Amino acid sequence: MALGMRIDCLQYCNWSETIFQQLRQGGVDAIHVTIAYHETFHDTVRNITAWNRLFERFPDMIFQGFTGDDVRKARETNRTAVFFGFQNPSPIEDDVFLVEILHRLGVRFMQLSYNNQSLLATGCYEANDPGITRMGKQVIAEMNRVGMVVDMSHSAERSTLEAIDLSERPIAITHANPNFWAPALRNKSDEVLKALAGRGGMIGFSIYPHHLLNKSDCTLESFCQMVADTADMIGVEHIGMGSDLCQDHADSEVEWMRNGRWTKAIDYGEGSASAAGFPDMPSWFRDNRDWDNVENGLLSVGFSNDDVASIMGNNWLRFFDENFSPTTS
Amino acid sequence: MALGMRIDCLQYCNWSETIFQQLRQGGVDAIHVTIAYHETFHDTVRNITAWNRLFERFPDMIFQGFTGDDVRKARETNRTAVFFGFQNPSPIEDDVFLVEILHRLGVRFMQLSYNNQSLLATGCYEANDPGITRMGKQVIAEMNRVGMVVDMSHSAERSTLEAIDLSERPIAITHANPNFWAPALRNKSDEVLKALAGRGGMIGFSIYPHHLLNKSDCTLESFCQMVADTADMIGVEHIGMGSDLCQDHADSEVEWMRNGRWTKAIDYGEGSASAAGFPDMPSWFRDNRDWDNVENGLLSVGFSNDDVASIMGNNWLRFFDENFSPTTS
Question: What is the pTM of this model?
Answer without folding.
Answer: 0.95
